[in-house]
């Protein structure tokens, strides 16, 4: 997860450089960002959930880590100098000419990587639920997400530094993260041995099944799809995350434009966002394990996000102050701890373990639709509202940012609805995870 999250965001602080070196304008950059989710949206994630519930965490984990590595290799080739001037580049550049050939192949690589990354995400969640059932599950998930956030922090620091080394190039950070993904694949193989040992101790079969619960059947999906609370969680998830991950991709340039600073300085400010989240998420997970209050945490997280995005939209352009920028980013980090820390451990409370993988995959699927559309929508909004902008001028982010504010408002309303449903139907979303 650490290396995966690094790979996802390695281009984020390099928007200006990739525009200068490979001609990726903001709309191209936005579409490239969306490509991570395209195959998932067109059904791969549903299949991934079924594979996970049928084949178990070890097989699915190794398959997903392999896909991540293959996708990364393709993306590396797309931005490399050997691709520039090749026959493939000529052919890819001969159609849909407004979208550069390097962006087309990099997007294909990112699509394959994205399948592996999301499949790994659900696999890891199911593995944690298996290893920590009735124990410190939220803390374990919180730590996993904290490690992922440290990855984002690390890449926001390392990527511009690697890219800026003479001769400045976007290729170096891509190559670096591709090697890390190979190491990630090897670490999952090691985990698989440990997981097999756990199964032996628990008396489970080679796929981690065969305990007291029934085996998963594809028809079980109907139990998930007919649950109202499942849909509330899924829509809350898509709205909340659509205002976080797509924003993350544009945040460096937003700060660059609003504060009038360099890309490096903007990335230096923004990298504290995942760090804030990394520091707090495990504590909130622990709180949830011992005290509960999951639904309340979701509402609070959405409110904090609204405040932050309003600040980026209206306050920063008027008062381009670094303390205001840092303050809002730390606050957004707190929001980004509250929601994930409460959201993911809530899923095992509303569905049975045998179809937990499919429940996670359906939530990820709906979330991926948002993550796929929002960078495009935001990229187009940015271009539309900056129609008169000339090369080198800062972008105006005020009106595009309202897209993210609206997501926050809707997520907050869903959080309130979820809390009301929980009070009525007693899912235990406000109760601690640890059973004494
Ligand atoms: N075991 C993973 C729990 C979910 C963590 C969550 N990630 C997602 O929701 C992903 N579907 C989206 C990741 C987008 C970047 N690739 C998180 O909070 O990071």
Automatic annotation (TrEMBL):
InterPro entries (alphabetical): MFS, MFS_trans_sf, MFSD1
Compartment(s) of residence: Lysosome membrane
Key words, A-Z: Lysosome, Membrane, Transmembrane, Transmembrane helix, Transport
Catalytic reaction(s) noted: L-alanyl-L-lysine(out) = L-alanyl-L-lysine(in); L-alpha-aminoacyl-L-lysine(out) = L-alpha-aminoacyl-L-lysine(in); L-aspartyl-L-lysine(out) = L-aspartyl-L-lysine(in); L-lysyl-L-lysine(out) = L-lysyl-L-lysine(in)
GO CC field: lysosomal membrane
TM stretches of this protein: 29-52, 59-78, 105-125, 137-158, 170-194, 229-249, 269-288, 295-317, 323-347, 359-381, 401-418
Gene Ontology terms for molecular function: transmembrane transporter activity
One Pfam family named in its UniProt record: MFS_1
Topology in the lipid bilayer: Multi-pass membrane protein
Statement: the UniProt record of this protein carries the keyword Transmembrane helix: yes
Main subcellular location of this protein, as a coarse class: membrane
Family: Belongs to the major facilitator superfamily.
Complexes and interactors: Homodimer. Interacts with lysosomal protein GLMP (via lumenal domain); the interaction starts while both proteins are still in the endoplasmic reticulum and is required for stabilization of MFSD1 in lysosomes but has no direct effect on its targeting to lysosomes or transporter activity.
Protein's job: Lysosomal dipeptide uniporter that selectively exports lysine, arginine or histidine-containing dipeptides with a net positive charge from the lysosome lumen into the cytosol. Could play a role in a specific type of protein O-glycosylation indirectly regulating macrophages migration and tissue invasion. Also essential for liver homeostasis.
The name this protein goes by in its record: Lysosomal dipeptide transporter MFSD1
């Amino acid at each position: 997860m650490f290396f995966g999250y690094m790979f996802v965001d390695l281009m984020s602080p390099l928007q200006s450089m990739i525009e200068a070196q490979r001609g990726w304008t903001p709309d191209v950059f936005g579409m490239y960002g969306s490509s991570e989710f395209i195959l998932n949206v067109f059904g791969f994630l549903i299949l991934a959930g079924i594979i996970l519930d049928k084949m178990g965490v070890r097989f699915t984990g190794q398959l997903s880590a392999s896909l991540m590595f293959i996708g990364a290799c393709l993306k590396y080739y797309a931005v490399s100098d050997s691709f520039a001037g090749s026959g493939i580049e000529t052919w890819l550049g001969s159609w849909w000419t407004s979208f550069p050939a390097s962006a087309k192949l990099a997007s294909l690589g990112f699509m394959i990587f994205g399948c592996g990354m999301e499949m790994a995400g659900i696999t890891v969640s199911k593995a944690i639920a298996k290893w920590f059932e009735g124990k410190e599950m939220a803390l374990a998930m919180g730590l996993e997400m904290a490690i992922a956030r440290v990855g984002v922090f690390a890449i926001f620091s390392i990527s511009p530094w690697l890219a800026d080394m003479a001769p400045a190039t976007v290729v170096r950070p891509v190559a670096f993260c591709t090697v890390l993904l190979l190491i990630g694949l090897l670490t999952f193989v090691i985990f698989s041995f440990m997981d097999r040992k756990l199964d032996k101790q628990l008396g489970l079969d080679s796929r981690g099944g065969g305990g007291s619960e029934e085996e998963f059947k594809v028809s079980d999906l109907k139990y998930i799809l007919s649950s109202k609370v499942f849909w509330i969680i899924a829509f809350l998830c898509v709205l909340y995350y659509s205002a976080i991950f797509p924003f993350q991709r544009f945040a460096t340039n937003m700060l660059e434009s609003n504060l009038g600073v360099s890309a490096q300085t903007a990335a230096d400010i923004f990298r504290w966002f995942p760090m804030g989240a990394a520091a707090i998420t495990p504590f909130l997970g622990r709180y949830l394990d011992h005290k509960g209050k999951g639904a309340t945490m979701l509402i609070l997280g959405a409110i904090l996000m609204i405040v932050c995005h309003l600040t980026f939209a209206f306050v920063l352009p008027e008062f381009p102050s670094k303390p205001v920028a840092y303050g809002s980013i730390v606050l957004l980090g707190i929001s980004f701890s509250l929601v994930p820390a409460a959201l993911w451990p809530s899923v095992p409370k509303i569905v049975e373990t045998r179809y937990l993988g499919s429940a996670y995959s359906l939530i990820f699927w709906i979330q991926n639709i948002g993550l796929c559309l929002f960078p495009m929508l935001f990229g187009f909004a940015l271009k539309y509202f900056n129609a008169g902008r000339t090369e080198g001028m800062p972008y105006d982010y005020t009106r595009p940012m309202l897209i993210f504010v609206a997501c926050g408002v809707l997520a907050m309303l869903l959080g309130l609805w979820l809390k009301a449903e929980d009070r009525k139907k007693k899912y235990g979303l406000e109760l601690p995870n640890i059973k004494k």
